Amino acid sequence: MSFLKKLTKDAKKAVSSMGDNVDRGLSRGQSIFSHMGEEQQVFLHGYLIIKIISARDIPDMENWYSKIVNKKDVTDAFVDVKLGKSRIAKTAVIDNDLNPVWNEAFRIEVCHKSNSLIFDVRDKDHAYTEEIGKVEINTQLLLDGAPMEGFFPIIKGNKDVVFDTLQNVLKTGTFSSERPQENGQLELFVQYVSMSDVAETSEVTSYFPMHRGCKVTLYQDAHCTHDIPWLNMVQGPPSIPPENRSCWMDLYYSIRGAQHLICITGWAVWTKLKLFRGEDALNIYGDTLGRLLCEKADEGVQVRVMIWSEKSSGDIFGDEGMMGTHDMETYKFFKDPKNYQTQNKVICALTPRELDTKELTDSLQNQFSSSMYTHHQKSVILDEECSFQPDGRRKLIAYVGGLDLTGGRYDTPYHPLFSTLKTDHDGDFRNSNAKGTPPHTGPREPWHDIHCKVEGPVARDVLENFIERWEKQGPGTGTPYIDDKMMRSLNPVAVSPVSSPDREWNVQFFRSITSDSAVFDQKKMNDEMLLSRKKGRFIEQSITQAYIQMIRNAQNFIYIENQYFMGSAYEWDTDNQTLCNHTIPAEIVAKIANKIKAGERLTA
Fold it and tell me: Is the domain of 175 the same as that of 268?
């Protein structure tokens, strides 16, 4: 034991001497090791702006046998950025370059406790990665908000040299330590913006701005009767009683009235769907959605439908697939010339969730994502008459929300389980929780969701989203561009006048999407405040940003209703390496803690 104590003491002296030599050569903000005690951690609450620009003089990490195949094969470098237990950013892989240039920028919302911000520079091989070294920045140095920029030494070597030395003695009987070595330099820009320095506003800095002059109609469920007692008690500002409108009825009349354009996105779009049931089907329209859209195409309207391409449908499990999205059935229906009276057709695009791949690990991830991840946008964009336009041009409107135009979605706020099985839900039965349930026995699965209709300039943003997706994953033709031809018949930024100024809506459109699925605006791609990056892909994650900003702004209550809710895995007691690191749950906890400390009431 005394031998080990002496050995530890000698090792600590060696480490102290080594640490002094390393630190003396560094300027402010470039300290490699954080010397803070592990029991205290810096709390960063706001956002980080990180730019990973380039690296220089990194070593060649390739083995001799790789040179046999390709003499020019050298390090394929990328950077992982970690804050505490959370990976918060990752660059693209730059192949065969000892002086790689990334020029990637990230805006990262943070609600983390950590003493260090780590830039882990690694070499990407086909099936694994190898460490080149790390740049470690003490997070205390970020708190003043001043930018830190320049070339930072990339250091390889374990900080816990004492432990490594003891392990080496026990294994080999010799006293030696692995001294950290510099493996090039990494060019960075890092700035921390504290939540206290961010203005409290309802507008989120994101790809699409907030618009005035808008109108929003809110819906719950596909069909809603006008008189529902428990909803009649609800009043919105300023003391406006609710108007319980039926979503699919309004949608039908909008489709029927469109003269130029109908663009639809969906997880699933079912051509056999009937928008009306019962007396409404007899009095208004009793045919299917597919027939309705074909009729509009015959009238000369541009009809574009973009649905998720389920991987299991088609050749593997037949047209129905495993998820029941009807994607192949829908695609074939709209392609069949027998469903039209003219040469004009509905153009349908099957859009998978696929990644641009270079490496084996990306290909494996792509197989998983294309099988398990979906396109979940549900929108319909159309033109509508606008009596306020002096030049007679029409305006854009858009339906956006959670209701797919597919089977099992027709429901009311009463959610009957048995009484409509042989009437309203005859031929449209769904129970995904007990799939063997007989359709005429039940129970059926109730379906509760929300939707909205937006009018005004924000409708153009919904159309822009459709165009960006169609350009990336559409069939290469039929893109509904906002060009001079369209502008002659439509005013895409027409405001929606309201009866009183206090009924005007300010509306902002949010989404979650990557450059694998959309062609982003080139100017916006250069603004790190609007788009972030991951492995070289551009990412629009304004839904997450909006959640975080609204939680931070909340003063009295937070109410969240969602199909799924998990996140902030870096704060979990177990399984904290799970890749679910957005900060929303941590933001809620921080808000509650701040309110408790201030002695103020908050309901969440």
Answer: no
The residues, any chain, with a CB within 8 Å of residue 495's CB and separated by 6 or more, are 212, 213, 214, 388, 456, 457
Domain-located, residue 505: no
Summarised one tens digit per residue, pLDDT across range 380-400 is 999 999 988 889 999 999 999
* 70 in any annotated domain: yes
Whether 305 and 347 have beta carbons less than 8 Å apart is answered as yes
Q: How deeply is 587 buried, as exposed, middle or buried, from its count of CB atoms within 10 A (0-12, 13-18, 19+)?
A: buried
Tell me the pLDDT band of 551, cut-offs 50, 70 and 90.
very high
pLDDT score, position 39: 59
Residues 102 and 331: their CA atoms lie apart, in Å, by 40
Whether the per-residue pLDDT at 159 is higher than 80: the answer is no
Task: Give the E-state strand segments of 230-283 in sequence order.
Answer: 261-266
- Measured from the Cβ of residue 361, the count of other Cβ atoms closer than 10 Å reads 15
536 falls within a domain = no
Question: For residue 434, with 0-12 CB atoms within 10 Å meaning exposed, 13-18 middle and 19 or more buried, which class applies?
Answer: exposed
Read off the CATH number of the domain in which 366 is found. Answer: 3.30.870.10
Q: Which residue has the higher pLDDT, 228 or 570?
A: 570
* 184 Rama class: left (phi>0) / alpha (psi -120 to 50) / beta: left
405 and 487 together in one domain: yes
Give the residue numbers spanning the domain of 53. 2-197
Looking at 474, 497, 520, the residue that finishes a domain is: 497
Average pLDDT of the chain? Answer: 86
pLDDT digit string (tens) for 512-535?
A: 999 999 999 999 998 888 998 888
What single-letter amino acid sits at 431?
N
Whole-number Å distance between alpha carbons of 405 and 222: 9
**Residues above pLDDT 90, as percent of the chain:** 65
- Exposed, middle or buried, 123 (CB in 10 Å: 0-12/13-18/19+)? buried
> Is 593 exposed, middle or buried, given 0-12, 13-18 or 19+ CB atoms closer than 10 A?
exposed
Is 441 part of any domain?
A: no
pLDDT tens across 112-153, in order? 999 999 999 999 987 788 999 999 999 999 999 999 999 999
What whole-number distance in Å separates Cα of residue 195 and Cα of residue 324?
44
**What is the CATH classification number for the domain harbouring 189?**
2.60.40.150
Q: How confident is the model at residue 262 (pLDDT cuts 50, 70, 90)?
A: very high
Strands 211-220 and 302-308: unpaired
Total domains present in the chain: 3
